[in-house]
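Q: Could you fold this chain for me?
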Amino acid sequence: MVVPVASAQGAAPACTVEYSVTGQWGTGFQGAVTLTNNRAPLTGWSLTFDLAAGQQVTGGWNAKWSQSGTEVTARNESWNGSLGTGASVAAGFLATSPGSGPAPAAFRLNGVACNVDPDPSTPPTDPTDPPTDPPPAGDGRAPALHVSGNRLVTAGGTPRRLLGVNRSGGEFMCVQGRGIFDGPVDDAAVAAIAGWKANAVRIPLNEECWLGLSNVDPAYAGERYIDAVEQLVARVEAHGMTPIVELHWTQGQYTGNSAGCSDVHATCQKPMPDARYSPSFWSSVAGAFKDDQAVAFDLFNEPYPDRATSSAADAWTCWRDGGTCPGIGYEVAGMQDLVDAVRGTGAKNVILAGGLAYSNDLSQWLTHRPEDPAGNLVAAYHVYNFNACASESCWDSTLTPVAAQVPLVAGEIGENTCSHGFVDRVMKWFDDHGLSYLGWTWNTWDCSSGPSLISDYGGTPTAYGTGLRDHLRALAP
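A: Sure. Below is the predicted structure, expressed as structure tokens.
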């Protein structure tokens, strides 16, 4: 059945949409939409509408289809983004359904209502404009960032410390065949993070899922995975927070000292990124976000080539240059390879690079730092109460020299005590030195089995998370 197009009297609607069910069976149906743009030509389009509760899009054609809750989004493909005045585009999708339900009643093109007569002064917007869904909250859209000396600053030169949380899930759910994110990442969930007065969110990713490799369920890989990540990044930015996209799990078989798994696939933390796929991952990610310098890139979660060799010199050389590394059986992509992959796309986004010992050792970071032609390189550091460098004396001796030359961001801070005494010390030291930090992790796991900040996605803190929440709120203007 074709849903009739209802329009008000007078001027033509900004856009019109015809919706029809072209096939139906016991557990699902096939839908089709025909979108017509009645206003100024567009170079890209995004159509949104709501399906009935319980209906779920499983795939489609002529658009990049995704769904969050009941809201469905169809974004243009690379080859059909241009939509001139009066031009139309047709797309279709498949969906599961527990039964029949009402047809969608409202459609929005780039945030503007279709099939009704809107204010004629409000044309559809290009999707490269700041997103209208979700609406900006807090300070509004996150600022573009760059490095100035040893500080991160906005385009206007205002210093910006990155203070926030990690949102784990994108690194493991997809490769385990369980989804894309662990828990909700809709606007309400992102708003809860902003409610802690965080201004940054680190988003761990999986290279096999982003690249859509054959071992990953297609439902959670390739374009579907990329689109989900892009939507989360947009929501984070819309709430005034800096998104840090980070390569967490990679390919490469490693069975040596401190191996997390024996699997060749990206199912655990490996000692170094792999030359086979990691540069391709960063070329793709950088291409997706190079026009948005509010997004920062964290090259690799926690390098540990030092566990594969007893030579610190070999470990640091492996870290920077990659290639054939002692104790690692696959060809490694060094930090320089990944910087080159990002910059090869033309992206000038801020890049973070963590050191050895799971990013807890920056002792030779300055000596071995990769060359960055854009001058936007940041040192990344991780610290937990059980790490080797977990005291003020170690921070004074190893972090202070690095922070004197480049921005330093503690991408992960935490403790396994289900309390916050240690992170309180970390935050004080970093505050005293004007540095950045993000707590691990905004997930509802039991804090006694790992550093989980929350007990629900509304933002209720665990006993451990209370320390970070109260501290961020105390720092907020």
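A (continued): The longest helix spans residues 223-238.
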